[in-house]
Design a protein that fits this description.
This protein is α+β, with helices and mostly antiparallel strands. The chain has three helices and twelve strands; from the N terminus they run βββααββββββββαβ. The protein has one domain: PPM-type phosphatase domain (Phosphatase 2c, domain 1, 4-Layer Sandwich), CATH 3.60.40.10.
Length: 194
């Protein structure tokens, strides 16, 4: 089942009740759309911004990554803004497009290595320029990891996130619990292609 291949975990900054990071995923007949947003700062206003970003993606699932982020940028102008990553995967071909603004992390983890996706400078809701949209052809077993700056930027070994005997949700939670540094809100979205 497709949903078992996608896991999301979030955790607020220590001492906070509300997490300023939000994420979601959608599976349609044609595509899978993933997003993770980190509202600037912490607490309820950061959560409001990140949730608005996620909601804007959910209302634009048929659009390209560029168009989705442009829509999010417009919606978030009344909030404090967010860093955000959006991934669109065409189910028939396995072609994925990745677009990222701000200090999010997006990583392709494969059996024999990994690759990072570049993030464009800026803030969703306050503007960005020259969005860098990257394409990737996914093959069975590939893993996309999206995570906020609540986790250190490091290469995650394939073995840490590829065990299909463990749900993607549990693996996302395990990565969050073992890697988050505790000085910020933290979130992980894990997608296993196959």
């Amino acid at each position: 089942m497709v949903i078992e291949t996608i896991g999301l975990a979030t955790r607020p900054l220590a001492g906070q009740v509300v997490c300023g990071d939000s994420g979601a995923y959608w599976v349609t007949d044609e595509r899978i759309v993933l997003t993770l947003a980190d509202g600037l700062g912490h607490g309820p206003e950061a959560a409001r911004a990140s949730q608005a970003a996620v909601d804007a993606v959910g209302a634009a699932l048929h659009l390209s990554c560029e168009e989705i982020l442009a829509r999010c940028d417009g919606v978030l102008h009344t909030t404090r803004g967010a860093a955000q990553v959006v991934v669109v995967i065409e189910r028939a071909s396995g072609r994925g497009t990745v677009a990222c603004v701000g200090n999010m992390r997006a990583q392709l983890v494969q059996r024999h290595g990994h690759a990072w996706f570049a993030c464009t400078r800026g803030i969703v809701g306050a503007g960005y320029r020259n969005l860098d949209v990257q394409s990737v052809m996914l093959v069975s077993g590939d893993i996309l990891l999206l995570y906020s700056d609540g986790l250190p930027e490091q290469s995650i070994p394939y073995e840490r996130c590829s065990d299909t005997a463990v749900s993607a949700e549990d693996q996302a939670r395990e990565l969050l619990d073992t890697l988050a540094h505790g000085r910020d809100d933290a979130s992980v979205l894990l997608y296993r292609h196959g």
